[in-house]
Amino acid sequence: MNHAMPTNDQAALKAEARSLSFFYGEVQALKNINMPIHDKKVTALIGPSGCGKSTYLRSFNRMHDLYPGNRYEGEIRFFPDNTNLLSPDVDPIEVRMRIGMVFQKPNPFPKSIYENVAYGLRVRGERNRRVLDDKVEQALRDAAIWNEVKDRLQDLAPNLSGGQQQRLCIARALATDPELLLFDEPTSALDPIATGAIEELVHELKKRVTILIVTHNMQQAARVSDYTAYMYLGEMIEFGKTDEIFIKPNDKRTEDYITGRMG
Amino acid sequence: MNKAIALTPEAPHQVSARLAKNVHRHLSERLIEFLLFAAAAVSVLTTIGIVYVLLSESIQFFQHVSIVDFLTSTQWTPLFDDAHYGIIVLVSGTLVSSAVALAVAIPMGMVIAIYLSEFAGARVREVAKPVLELLGGIPTIVFGYFALLIVTPLLQKILPGLPGFSLLSAGLVMGIMIVPYIASLSEDAMRAVPMSLREGSYAMGATRLHTALHVVVPAAVSGLAAACILGISRAVGETMILAVAAGMQPNLTWNPMEPAATITSYIVQVALGDLPHGSIGYQTIFAAGLTLLLITLLFNILGQWLRRRFREAY
Fold this sequence. Notes:
The structure holds 2 protein chains of 2 kinds.
Chain A: E1 13-24, E2 27-38, E3 42-46, H1 53-60, E4 70-78, E5 83-84, H2 92-98, E6 99-102, H3 113-123, H4 129-142, H5 146-149, H6 162-174, E7 180-184, H7 192-205, E8 210-214, H8 218-224, E9 227-232, E10 235-241, H9 242-247, H10 252-258
Parallel strand pairs in A: 3-8, 3-9, 6-7, 7-8
Antiparallel strand pairs in A: 1-2, 1-4, 4-5, 9-10
Helix pairs in contact in A: 3-4, 3-6, 4-6, 6-7
Chain B: H1 2-7, H2 10-25, H3 27-64, H4 67-72, H5 88-119, H6 122-135, H7 140-158, H8 167-191, H9 195-203, H10 208-219, H11 221-237, H12 240-245, H13 263-272, H14 280-309
């Protein structure tokens, strides 16, 4: 049952890729991907470098629109409203208002800790100081960094440590209550302790938000995710419950990758 | 302690013996090192020479004129029988014309830089930037006559009371001349901001303008400050435009609608005349030049401070 079959059970889905292909100019980076994203679950994308995991992830919030010459084919349906995120009629800014993202390398803005977290709220036109204060505090608490920064909210964010910066970036993404949170290898630039803190956070966050996470680290995928997709050369080879994928993969290529014979 | 002292006499001998061998082996390297050093030394020595001449001539000047008079007198009439040496007269002209120029150049330069760095496509930028930089290559004397013969008559239609020579007209054109410097340097500073910061902002749902103003500009602020400081230095030191279009009569004024001499245009005026060496009129050039040097130095120090204060933190 763990093969790449989109389920019909849409009530439990947050999004679904349908026949999704993607082109960097002439180069096809994603080939006909079909995959469900389950609501309030963590879905991990694994696969060797260059397999298209990040390209796939970045299609969800239309990051590819920032660069010329990129082209999508197919759809990403977003539920409950069944919007096609990739439709030319859908404003990428509207998409990004609903979908948050945390990047590989922490990228705090050259502003204070407070202003970093308030950024998305200000983009959405929030001016009320009390509302801002409340939401900033809540987001910092949710990102498990409040106790470390509560006495220095006006310090410059780039002066924090790498692990703190990444948690700040998570707080920044959480402050606007996204429906889906994209993580692009969020721990690849962090030490094991900071990595542990982020993983714990991901586990905690899935109670309220759907999470899609790209990772190079198989143990990490096994630890944090409910569903796992294995990608190879732009194709989705296998998708299923994480336990099943890791214990009994269907596809030989998935097995080779997971057991370390390749990649 | 004793042991250390006992060891030192021998150590230098060993080291120099080893070096001596290297000298023969790397003779060409030493030669190149010397040439490189000489090239660097020429520019440093030139600067020292200029400062020396300015200082020594100024010291002679200040033996005739007290520093208090120089700083407080409100008249600048060094060539008259009733001579006054109030540098503030020339400084006011310099500051007013520079302020007009910067009021044009900084906003325009920033807008152009933001457009080129954040909005323009690659092809627009490839054409626009070289053309913009070409503007910086136009000789300033051409700008001067542009101010005198085109901009001033145009301004007189809007401002009927404007005289034929004015700080306003010269300052405006000086601003146009400085725009390419500020725009080009600011664009470089903004383009150096890593793409990851922009992506972070776009991912939050920000528009291009919001990203440019709230993320890119703050991240590039030290480079932008450096660009503005360079613009100020250009404005303060600019000569021909002011000599041609601002009139050359010393005039203590803070009103850009009046004609006035600046430090630089005064120096040109006097240097073109035939004042005898060593006369006090001749020495005023050096006192004025020293003042100019100090003003530029002040802005350079300010620029260095700004650069340290707002070091790129990405």
